[in-house]
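Human: Respectfully, please carefully check these C-alpha cells:
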Amino acid sequence: MRRSAMAAIAAVSSAGLLLSACSKADDSSDNANKGAGANAATKDVVNASTKKGGTVTYASSDAPESLDPGNMYYAYGFNFSRLYARPLMTFKPGAGEKGNELVPDLAESAGTPSDGGKTWTYKIRQGVKFEDGTVVTSKDVKYAVERSNFARDVLSSGPNYFQQLLDGGDKYKGPYKDKSEKGIASIETPDDNTIVFKLNKPFADFDFLASQPQTAPVPRAKDTGVDYTKKVVSTGSYKFEKYDEGKQIVLTRNPEWDAKTDPLRKQYPDKIVVNLKVNKATIDKDVMAGDTMIDIQGTGVDAQTQAELVNDKDKLANTDNALGGRLIYTAINTQQKPFDNVECRKAVQYAINKVAVQTAMGGPIRGDIASTVLPTDIPGYEKYDLYATKGNKGDEAKAKEHLKACGQEKGFKTAISARTDRQGEVDAATAIVGALKKVGIDAEIKQFPSGKYFSDYAGVPKFNKKQNIGLIMMQWGSDWPTGYGFLQQIVHGKAIGQSGNTNLSELNDPEINKLLDDAIGNTDEAARTAAYTQVDKKVMEQAAIVPLTYFKVLLYRSPYATNVVSSSAFSGQYDYLNIGTTKQ
C-alpha cells in the first residue's frame, strides 16, 4: 500500500528497544520530555486523551501524489484521507496487529456475500452528509468507484482491483467517456442506502477491498476530474479550508459531520495543518521540538536523527520501531532488454550485496535482510532463499555464470531509478550500482520525485523503455493484511498499467496469475495462504524481484501528540484518525 516511500537513513547499529504500557496525556513540561517508552505505541495507545482543541501539525518532504481518495496509493495517503473521506469499511485504530481489525465505516456492517462470493451487498449508514449538507447516497459510492477505476487516463495513481473484478469491467469506459448516469451495470443501487457489487468471480477478501479510499463517496456534480484533488468534498470529520499546492494543506472541523453516524472519528483538534516540501532533517528537528507533531509520510527519521536517537536512552523512549508488512526491493523490468532473459535477472540476484544495502538503509534497526517477496508478518510467508550467498554479501562468480548464460558475459548498461527526496533509497541504489559494476553491469542512477514517481516516471512502462530503466527501487506495503493484498498489485499481469503502474517488473506469468485468481475465490483460508506461498516462490524463480530487507520504520513520537498508536494496517505508521494535541 500502497507504495510506502523510503526515508533518508544511514548506517547505525541496532538498538535494543524497550516496551512500555499505555500512558495518559499530560501537558506539563516535565512529562513532555519523558517518553512513554520505546515501542510503547506498538503495544497500546500513548497519551490517551479526549481533550479537544489546538492544531495538529504535520509535515512532508514532498507534495502528495494526490489528495483525491480515488487517485492515491501511498500508505500515508490512505491513512490521512480517512479524516475527510469515509470508505465503506476501514481499519479500527489499534496498536500493532490489532490495527488490522476491519470495521464498518460508511457501511452499517460488513458486506453480505451471496452467489458463492460473486455478489457483495452493503447498507450505507443513514444520515451521513457531505460538507455542503447534501445526504450521501449509494449512487455517490458507485460513482466514486467508477471514476477511480475506469478512467485510468485521467486518474491513474490508485489500484485497479474493481476494474479487474467487476462483471463487465473490461468493457466499461468510465464516467468521463460514458456520459450515461447508468454507469457500469455490475454496481447496482436499488435504493439510496444499498449498493450491490456483482463480480466476475468469487472474491473472499472483498471487505478489505471495500476499505480502499476509492469507495469513499464523490458527488458527480462536484467532480472535476484530475482537479478534484484541489477541492475534495468531505464526508469525514474534517474538511479542506486551504490547499496551497506544493506548500500547505489546512483542514478544519466539518460542521456537517455527526458523531451519531460515525463510531470511529472523534474530531479532537480544531485544525490540522500539513506543511509540504520541508527538508527531512528539518521535519525531524521540528517533531523532536514539538513544533510539528507528525512526519506525515511515516517512513521514519533520517540518518543523523537515527544516530542521535539510538545513542540517547531518553530520546529513544519517544520512538517506535515497527514492522508493517513492508518489503524493500529492486524490481527487475522483465520487458527491458536484456532483462527479458531470466538468466540476466538471476545474475542481478547473485550480484547484489544485501548487507551493503541494509547498511546503507540504516542497519538492522531498519529491517532484516530479505530473501522472499512476502514479508515475515504476512500470511503465506515461508522462510527460504533461492539465491543464497555467503553472508548475504553476493556471489560474483555465480553472477558472471548467469551473465554468460544470457549471452552478456561482457556486461551491459542499464539504469536504476530511485526517488530524489529519499536519500536512503538513493544510498541503497548506490550500493547496488557498486555491486553490479563488479560483475560488469554498468548501472546509472536516475532520480525522480516521489510525488510523481509512479504517475510520470517509474510507473510508466513507456518511460522506462525510453530511459533504459531495467531496475527500479521500490518499497511495498500490503494493501490489506493477506497474501493477496500484498502480492496482486505487484506481480499479477492484470495489474500492469500504462501510468501509475505498481507491477514494476511488468511480470505477466500465466501460472502466477492463475494461482492468485484461483486462491482469492477459494473459501478455504488455509488453501489460499498455501497458494500465496507458491506465488512467492514462482516470482523468485522468475527472478523478477530482488528482496532487500523486510523494512521496519523508526518513528519519533511527539510527546505533545495524543492518542498515538502505531498500526500494522498502515505499514507501522501512526494512525492519523484521532490524533490530538496537548498544545493549545
Notes: The chain has 17 helices and 24 strands.
